[in-house]
Design a protein that fits this description.
CATH topology: TIM Barrel
Largest sheet: 8 strands, parallel
Number of strands: 8
Strand order of the largest sheet: 7-6-5-4-3-2-1-8
Helix content: 40-55%
Order of helices and strands: EHEHEHEHEHHEHEHEHHHHH
Radius of gyration: 18 Å
Length: 294
Amino acid sequence: MKNNIQGVGVALVTPFGRDGEVDYEALGRLVDYVTENGVDYLVVLGTTAETPTLTREEKHSIVSCVKERNAGRLPLIVGIGGNNTTEVIHTVKETDLSGVAAILSVVPYYNKPTQRGMFEHYRAIAGESPVPLLLYNIPARTGVNMTAETTLKIAHEIPNVLGIKEAGGMVSQMAHILKDRPQDFRVISGDDILSLPLISLGGDGVISVAANAFPKPFTEMIAAAFAGNTAVAAGLQMRLLDAIEALFAEGNPTGVKAALAVKGMIENCLRLPLVAGSDALLARFRTLIDRYGL
């Protein structure tokens, strides 16, 4: 299995117009913007894309739009996950995965499966998927944590799994996975702020929210970390620190959409139950973007 997933992946937002519909023109501009500013691969239909609010038809159209605009320039990962294993497999089978490098599939939420249940869930999906799986552990949203032991059991025993997006916020858990992972099993941070610690331990980069709005300094930071230039990477981290914190001050993707709106990339529009960033957040981003040249 060829594995070219490394560096900075961007968890693309789904732009909406003021009418509430998907703004495909803005989505295309965003693909060009992040690509031209150095990201290594694209991720669509993840958490940051407000995927739970999208119809099945919109999901298919978004994937098609990004494929067309990307035109094969960067690897593409598509989010397909859920808490109904049979339905996830059905969605995998009905989705056009031509030109897709992998599926990002979240740990089942709400049901609170056991570790064995998580293992069997992924084994079932991997056995039916025509492309590799990237596991996605984010206990703050799913209500359960997939342990390092379970991740490693999947990595060693289930074919067709290329790695994990680990967003549990626990560096020690990431370290245990890195210590005993198989060769070429990717360990990717799901937290922008933990990217440098993970890379220092031998990790493979980040799927980033911040790279939507600040792709150039963010990708330069990650490149410096991979090159072992700690001083440059740390300097860029400090330059981005306040802005990254602001991205999550009112939740995700509320913050990053506010930042993109300030930069003139998209409208400051979300779908309920999420609401648009406050005037105070917009003002905060105007100040930070100006102060740090973002």
